[in-house]
Amino acid sequence: MASASITARSLSTLLGDWQGAGAQYAALADRVRLLVLDGRIPVDTRLPAERELAEALGLSRTTVSAAYAQLRDAEFLHSIRGSGSLTRLPEGPRSIPLPTDTGILDFSKASLPALPWLAETVRQAADELPRHLGDSGYDPVGIPELRAAIAERYADRGLPTEPDEIMVTIGAQHAIALLARTLIGRGDRVLVEQPSYPHAYEALRAAGGRFAPASVVAGDDGGEADSMVQAIERTSPAVGYLMPDFHNPTGRSMSEEDRARVVDAAARAGTLLIADETTAELDIDRLDAHAPFAVHGDAVLIGSVGKTVWGGVRVGWIRAPRPLIRKLVAARHPGDLGTPILEQLVVTALMPQMPEILELRREQLRAGREHLEAGLADGFPEWDVPHVDGGLSTWINLGVPVSSQLALAARTHGLIIAAGPRFGIDGAFERFLRLPIGYSAEETDAALAALALAWRSLARTPVVDPSFLADVV
């Protein structure tokens, strides 16, 4: 049985401007395929009946039937008598035609390679494991030495913190989901940035939150704070989720003045702010480093080592008042029984090395940013590429609303990219594309070559003026 369903009206909204120059059934199938591939339609979701979708889109039922048939042939849809048509993912990469000599380039993830000395640190941590083996191993709050090390790191950054104000989680996403289901009641208003991290949207929505969006525009100094303050005053949300440093996907950072304004507005409205600081220390050349968001007032902080150490080390944390930490511990058991001890020992060993780690990441990100910016300037001169001063990605304005089409075309050349609407609510941001800056020069060159082929292929659709692509190489 399907775990979820989507109405014809909701699917119509997600599809956006999907029609191209080819057959309507093929264009419709392609757009649904992308929505499944990038997670905007979860696997095992029941799609609307053919007649209902045809009416919502103003199409013939024959067109929708042909689109569904193409999706079934590509193994993105399977139909069960009495249960409707359910989304699925095909086994293996058969749906993605790939160059035989390169394989898949996945640029949908904004990440960095593993820390060079991580394997050695894991071996050293394993030597520390025996002293914990006398316990049950179920640790819902975090081993004392790691909580102390995280608290010390906050203090070093200007925010005095005690170990009992820290809960260790299984990464930042786990922290977001745990906070969401603990703090949000069904129907509660939740302040969110637009665009933002898509998995945060998913966790907040799954907890029953109704979004009160605030616009984020890279380089728009003060504009986001105005939007957030207005949204808080208008809706009095129970919770707010934001990324004040090197925001995903735009890369922008809030000023100290704007942080104080938002915290003050939240305090007056009784809104509990959650600041996701997983990228906060990934400076490249920002002039002024910011202290943790909570220096301005009450706020819950989320951190992790997924962006600084490696995504495969699933350790994150929550900094919150002691009563909330106790509430989170009580709420945690239905979902999981604690963070793995060995991984906590690994992170405990790495925390004192954080200045060295961040310096290494700074140089890697600087080199990646400069190489990507140069390649984009040469190959895509009409794109608006902001110069980010930290973080893991850049938010590119394509100038035309073809991001989803470009993402589909890129897959045919072996490149996976995250279309702009992946970061919006209900299909916005078709003019934007997020590209990561943390990959090697070789990987970036290969990705840009595939992207150029995909971009040129869009000249065949009337959505893009072919002259817009004249300088693409």
pLDDT average, as an integer? 90
* Strand order in space, largest sheet: 6-12-11-10-9-7-8
Number of helices: 15
Helix content: 25-40%
* Terminal Cα span: 48 Å
> What Rg, in angstroms, do the CA atoms define?
23 Å
Instruction: Report the portion of residues in β strands.
Output: 5-15%
The count of DSSP E runs of length 2 or more, i.e. the number of strands, is 16
Q: What does the largest sheet look like?
A: 7 strands, mixed
List keywords for this structure.
473 residues; alpha/beta; 7-stranded mixed sheet; 3-stranded antiparallel sheet; 15 helices; 16 strands; 40% helix; 13% strand; globular; disordered C terminus
Description:
This protein has 473 residues and is of the alpha/beta class. The chain contains 15 helices and 16 strands. It has helices at residues 8-15, 24-37, 50-57, 61-73, 118-128, 144-156, 171-183, 198-206, 223-235, 256-269, 322-332, 341-350, 354-379, 403-411, 441-457; strands at residues 4-5, 45-46, 77-80, 84-87, 105-106, 166-169, 189-194, 210-215, 239-242, 272-276, 300-304, 316-319, 393-397, 415-416, 418-419, 432-436. The strands form 5 sheets. It has a 7-stranded mixed sheet with strand order 6-12-11-10-9-7-8, sandwiched between helices. The longest helix has 26 residues, at 354-379. 46% of the residues are buried. Mean pLDDT is 90; it is low at 92-102 and 462-473.
